[in-house]
Amino acid sequence: MRFQIIISLLLISPVFLLAQNQSELTAQIEKLNKIYTEAMINNDTKTMMSLYTNDVISLPSYQPMIKGIDSLRSLSEQAENSDWKTSSFDLKTTDVFPAGNLIIEVGNYKMTMTGPGIPEWKDEGKYITVWQKQNDGNLKIKIEMWNTDLNPWQEMQQSQGEKK
Question: pTM, whole model, 2 decimals?
Answer without folding.
Answer: 0.80
